[in-house]
Amino acid sequence: MSAGVTIIGLGPGDPRLLTREAWDLLEASAEVYLRTREHPVVSSFPAHLQVFSFDELYQQSQTFEAVYAQIVEQVLTLGRRTEGVVYAVPGHPYVAEATAPEIVRRARAEGLTVRVVQGLSFLEPVFSALGIDPFPNLALVDALELASAHMPSFPPSVAALIAQVYSPLIASDLKLTLMNVYPDEHPVQLVHAAGTPQERVENLALYEIDRSPHIGLLTCLYVPPLGVETSFEAFQEVVARLRAPDGCPWDREQTHQSLRSDLLEEAYEALAAMDAQDVVALCEELGDLLLLILLHTQIASESGEFNMTDVLRGIHTKIVRRHPHVFGETRLDDARQVLQNWERLKAEERAANGKSETGLLDGAPLALPALAQAQQYQKRAARVGFDWPELQGVMDKLLEELREVEEAPEGEAKAAEIGDLLFAVVNLARWYHVDAESALREANAR
Q1: Residues 6+ apart with CB under 8 A from 188
Q2: In whole numbers, what is the pLDDT of the chain averaged over residues?
Q3: How many Å apart are CA 427 and CA 436, to the nearest integer?
Q4: pLDDT at site 359
Q5: Between the chain's N and C termini, which has fewer beta carbons within 10 Å?
């Protein structure tokens, strides 16, 4: 041995699955450092081999990130010795292994010799246990990341293999995230200790996974797909196919302008479903709205204006940036402060983009119905403090506008005062947290 770092992949756990290269190196070494002793193959190491591990770091640190950072530093320090270091990790050094890639990167950057001895990862034994081919589509997901999320990070139209389901607590958090998309009864499979004599596959409903008595360090979860019709990406393909040269003649003829009225109509139909409290109809109408959004985006993509990636990146970036109290360190105590900060951030964005300062009401859609437009103007003004201090001021203004209607002469003056009265009524609706447009539609229906 000489100065440098040698990283060995120990395979999935069965000593018979160690590579010949890995076994020869272990036999030729005097010592080995393990990320963890919690691996079945360790008990079969050559008898002369002195074994060290970093297991104590897991008890000393609160996060895996902190543990891995310390391991990287210590392995590099050991690698600088005259005799170097042999560092062994479960599975393959580049599969679901946080420390090895960073050690290799850092070692090479400082000129240390690096050798990576590959090992069979946990993936191949899992595929054999399940009897599946991962091609053409399989998402590989980390259980810890998914358990801390609110929604799955992969489309439900593809199968997913979720690694590191090492405790019932992780399984419990994991199933809650998955059940935001998948039915509670969705059939899944827990795979335990794949590639070892203790290998076991459990067929369960999704809601049952945290009840398994077999969950351990070598457990992963296989989630079969829901169906091609359940993913956003698959629906994008449908829309692109409609617009293709051999697609639908009607869809191919459409433009942004020709679809303008359809977009407005579908929005109103969604509102009608909301007003009727018809959740089945609302689900359908939101689908129709999504179709229009994808059609407009596909048209723009074909002409080189923008594509869906641009749309998603834009709205994702904007929403995260405008919610620093959620995704950052800013503290805002109530909704009023949130709205005021929102307007401030918008002003900063305009300045950063080189846009001249605009009025508070600029940008409100002119195509909105008059009541909805008035309410949006009033909301924007209220965000920056331009509002009555209490409801009585709104009532007094309403009565004042009513008197002015009575006193105004016929014609344009009367029409102007009625407009002011309606504007005041909309403000009253806002104070009562009532959507004026919806309230009038409901009155029409009555």
Answers
A1: 203, 204, 205, 206, 209, 221, 222, 223, 224
A2: 91
A3: 9
A4: 63
A5: C
Residue 415 confidence (pLDDT):
86
Burial code (b: 16+ CB inside 10 Å, e: under 16) for 25-40 equals bbeebeebbbbbeebb
Q: Which amino acid is at 367?
A: A
Same domain, 115 and 179: no
DSSP string, 179-233: TTTS-TT-EEEEEESTTSTT-EEEEEEGGGGGG-TT--TTEEEEE----GGG-HH
Tokens of 216: 């351990």
Residues 13, 45 within the same domain? yes
Number of domains in the chain: 4
- Tell me the two tokens of residue 95: 């599969």
Q: Are 209 and 134 part of one and the same domain? A: yes
Report, in this order, helix, strand and coil percent for the chain, each rounded to 5. Answer: 55, 10, 35
Burial 280-310 (b: 16+ CB within 10 A, else e): eebeebeeebebbebbbbbbbbeeeeeebee
Low-confidence ranges of the chain (pLDDT < 70): 1-2, 355-367, 384
Same domain, 82 and 187: no
CA distance 171 to 182: 15
Instruction: Tell me, yes or no, whether 32 and 66 share the same domain.
Output: yes
Looking up residue 177, the CATH number of its domain turns out to be: 3.30.950.10
Q: pLDDT tens for residues 366-380? A: 667 788 888 888 887
The parent domain of residue 36 ranges over 5-120
Query: Tokens 């959740």 belong to which residue?
Result: 279
